[in-house]
Design brief:
alpha+beta, 5 helices
């Protein structure tokens, strides 16, 4: 019996991960990065060679390290975490908002062996939300100067 269909499915999955615009990162239960796609390289500024084998904490701001422990605890319980909005850090130190989806990875025997993390940069959406909120606040402010036509002569 050939496992060619399985090989084909694995190749397709690898192509999807490779071409995704979202960062896709795999880590073990100790938080060590085991896989890092091209989008993760672009988003975070670390190459796969720089990231794989290091702790995921390298992209988590110090004031958010507790999130890592909470996410790992949920993964160990077999839970997925969808659309969790937080802040992450690029190689150059800049912080930016992301939406995370984190899912457990199961081994052949059904035990949880790690986590898959998909990160989407939501900077543009956050900037738009601030612009809309600012415009709405200005529009509803009764003290805001209003435009009026010039006086007639």
């Amino acid at each position: 019996m050939s496992d060619a269909p399985s090989d084909l499915a694995s190749l397709r999955l690898a192509a999807i991960v490779k071409s995704s615009d979202d960062a896709i990162v795999e880590k073990n239960l100790q938080g060590v990065i085991t896989s890092w796609n091209r989008a993760a390289e672009r988003m975070f500024g670390f190459t796969a060679d720089e990231a794989v084998g290091r702790s995921i904490a390298m992209i988590i701001p110090n004031d958010r390290l507790d999130e890592k422990h909470g996410l790992i605890a949920r993964i160990r319980n077999g839970e997925s975490v969808e659309h969790f909005e937080t802040i992450r850090r690029r190689k150059d130190g800049t912080l930016f908002p992301v939406s995370l989806t984190v899912s457990p990875i199961f081994g052949a025997d059904g035990t949880i062996i790690g986590a898959s993390k998909i990160a989407r940069d939501i900077s543009d959406r956050k900037h738009a939300e601030v612009a809309i909120a600012t415009a709405e606040a200005l529009q509803s402010d009764p003290q805001r100067p209003r435009w009026s036509p010039p006086p007639r002569s």
